[in-house]
Design a protein that fits this description.
The structure is a homodimer. By secondary structure, the first copy, chain A, is α/β, with parallel strands linked by helices. The first copy, chain A, is built from twelve helices and 25 strands. Chain A has three domains: about 160 residues, FAD/NAD(P)-binding domain (3-Layer(bba) Sandwich); about 130 residues, 3-Layer(bba) Sandwich (FAD/NAD(P)-binding domain); about 110 residues, FAD/NAD-linked reductase, C-terminal dimerisation domain (Enolase-like, domain 1). A five-stranded parallel sheet of chain A has the order 3-2-1-7-18. In chain A, strands 9-16-10-11-12 form a five-stranded parallel sheet, covered by helices on one side. Chain A has a five-stranded antiparallel sheet with strand order 21-22-25-24-23, with helices on both faces. Chain A is globular.
Chain lengths: ~450, ~450
């Protein structure tokens, strides 16, 4: 049995390890154009910040460790083509193209940072994306000699980098083309995130929303300033693109593998593509949203791991279903935790639900505990069915605890009425007697039904 | 409409406030033998520890505040009798007994600390229980002039007090008559709790398990030493009884109100007793366990609040069901968090399930984060149905997050297979890429079915 895996960050690395455990005698080969495998891309902002000194801590497993387990790893290899009729891929290394046979192929090509078109954007050396270990090393090096950084995009990577830079005493400007920062959240919660960050700002950073960079000005390959769509000129030492990612599906598409409406590779619950013996997982694959039932593309490291495991099991002949995702995320920016799961009120309206929501602000533990901090929770449910649809929480550490409590409820398709008296753990250092999440659910229940 | 409520700590206070909001014109009267109302009994260890200075922080709502809302509060009143045929209670105050008419009666008489029979136990002034605000004030006062304290019982209140005393530089001996501390947990998890506490002990406390106090020795009303069942003599400055509580059901039982097999007042889902117009809620009422379907008695402040609300709604004519409890708890002792929900493996066997469990130890966040701490999670499921039965977690802060994630899954009666790929929030400061809870579920799933 020849198993070939393209890509080796999260999904690919996980798939390789799992399949080798299931089929110890199989030949397992990983091809990656990267020169690292199995690393924590999500950890880059913390390496950049200096939370730990050695970038090697980001490496979960080295190529040597894979090889010791009998998994062959080919670094710096570009897979040029998948040829399904021949069960082959064409791999280019050092300008030499070699065909490699597979019985089962797992595509884990991930996603590429989105680089907006601005004239000269590829010419400046101090413009960065945040994806690979090298990106992290380069950004940290440059940061240590910089006084100002410009971040394009205010999603979770943008805000995590904001923390990294501010902790290293840089001044930061974040440019967001949408009207609000963290635009994945409902407008009211985005506004709250901004308000909470501004409260602890102390002149260290500024948000420019509803703006774009339209011009880059520098000397030779060094960017020195940018011009925004409203005509502002911002001097900077470095610019980092955190404007999202796009699924890396070119070779799959070329091979006739079906691409979903989201632009990512279409897979079924077994992580199989439309072509037999070819699986896809991780950031290059489309997902099903458990709440809406819709196809979505939400690239996250935790999902990639689970999908990699599931694809590997099915490729190895062990039945495994992956039901889908809830779009759960958590982000820390300075002292603020923000987390969400399910669908927002805005999304619910677009999809065709009749969303009703309750937002409450309360201490995350009993008020007399000196560590108590404020937390704001928004819970969204459907008026017609009473089903929970999602939640968003912003504030003290522990915001994520409430959101994870909701994920299981969404997974179980619970109604607000079923959820409202959930027996959550209680003790003064951990929550108020009635958790803010349940307060929100109780009020929401009354709002939905005029009953409890 | 005359509403009478007996008891005013958590359930009674909540019921009074809720019913007045629903029926602003009703007469609402609270009778309590206590001289405080609406206080956080669970906060006593933190007041004793000195986490906050003023005991008044424990008071959620004063009698005056209740009165301002039109609720009459009668302190230091002993309700001697309930006379259902006459819709009356007999209240004794200052040796004067007065009949009080009710249309709806809510019994929230709570629980009394269990005082083991040891000769002379009522004669010593430096032996305490931990239930009322006065208890807290008296313990703190005595603690400040003591060097050693003896705690009887190693359940959550015992361990919380251990923290309080150790933080105030007392040496502490905990005597537990069972073989293990925190005996509500499975044996392996109890052992782990003890091991983790011993690791940070530094000679400050000792556990004596499988032992009882059999003799109390002192001068006049001052306890000076105790003799244990194995013959040990322990000198001490004070002794605190944390040996559990018993439901306070005497007047209910006398009135012909049905008592359940657990010894607490039997109620239906509307919190109604067998007698029309009489409701019971909080620590005096029996509960249904959502996982086992059995009647249980688990006295907790969070449950009392929810039941008080539900009883009030039904008494006011607004339909409300309380589905039951999951026996979820969280306890902090020094730096250790321990939390549990559902049923343990031991309980599952007794009930008749075929439990299978997986225990894993892992960092609670990505290992490269400097704040990462170890967490051990045990997940229990039923081999026949695949249903999740419960979980226990011990270790770093964040143990409770995993347990709360499980509560919703138990509420939704999810199988391990349905739960194992739950889309939990992930970011390096909050969890590893695959949360330890999901690791445990994935392994458990394989163990149950030889599938994923």
């Amino acid at each position: 049995m020849n198993i070939v895996i393209i890509g080796a960050v999260a999904a690919g690395a996980k798939a390789a390890a799992k399949i080798k455990r299931l089929l110890p005698d199989a030949s397992v080969k990983i091809f990656t154009r990267d020169n690292h495998v199995s690393y924590s891309s999500c950890g880059l902002p913390y390496y950049i910040a200096g939370n730990f000194a050695d970038y090697k801590a980001l490496l979960v497993r080295s190529p040597e460790e894979f090889r010791q387990d009998g998994i062959e790893v080919y670094l710096n290899c570009n897979v040029e083509k998948i040829v399904p009729p021949d069960n082959e891929i064409l791999v280019c290394r050092d300008c030499l193209t070699t065909p490699i046979h597979y019985d089962k192929l797992i595509i884990a090509t991930g996603a590429n940072p989105f680089v907006p078109y601005i004239k000269g954007i590829k010419d400046f050396k101090n413009i960065y994306t945040v994806r690979t270990v090298e990106d992290g090393i380069n950004i940290r090096k440059k940061m240590l000699e910089s006084k100002h950084a410009l971040i394009i995009g205010s999603g979770y990577i943008g805000l995590e980098l904001l923390e990294s830079f501010v902790r290293n005493n840089l001044k930061v400007t974040i440019i967001e083309q949408k009207e609000r920062i963290m635009p994945a959240y409902d407008d009211d919660m985005s506004d709250l995130i901004r308000k909470k960050l501004e409260e602890i700002n102390n002149g260290r950073f500024e948000f420019l929303t509803g703006e774009k960079v339209v011009e880059l000005i520098g000397k030779e390959d060094n960017l020195e300033k940018v011009v925004t769509s409203s005509g502002k000129i911002i001097n900077t030492d470095m610019m980092v693109l955190c404007a999202g990612v796009r699924p890396n599906v070119e070779i799959a598409e070329d091979a006739g593998i079906e691409i979903g409406t989201t632009g990512a590779i279409k897979v079924n619950k077994l992580m199989r593509t439309n072509i037999e013996n070819i699986y896809a997982c991780g950031d290059c694959a489309e997902k099903t949203h458990i709440v809406s039932g819709q196809n979505v593309w939400i690239p996250l490291g935790s999902t990639a791991n689970k999908e990699g495991r599931c694809a590997a099991m099915n490729a190895a002949g062990v039945y495994c279903e992956f039901d889908g995702v809830l779009a759960s995320t958590v982000t820390r920016c300075l002292k603020i935790t923000m987390a969400m799961t399910g669908i927002t009120e805005r999304e619910a309206k677009i999809i065709g639900f009749t969303p009703v929501s309750v937002t409450i602000t309360k201490n995350d533990m009993v008020g007399y505990m000196p560590e108590a901090g404020e937390i704001t929770i928004k819970v969204v449910a459907d008026k017609i069915t009473g089903l929970l649809l999602g939640g968003q929480a912003v504030g003290a550490v522990g915001a994520d605890k409430r959101i994870n409590t909701l994920t299981s409820a969404l997974l179980g398709h619970l109604t607000v009425a079923e959820f409202k008296n959930n027996d959550l753990t209680y003790s003064p250092p951990y929550s108020p007697t009635i958790d803010p999440l349940l307060d929100a659910a109780q009020i929401l229940c009354t709002k939905l039904s005029n009953r409890c």
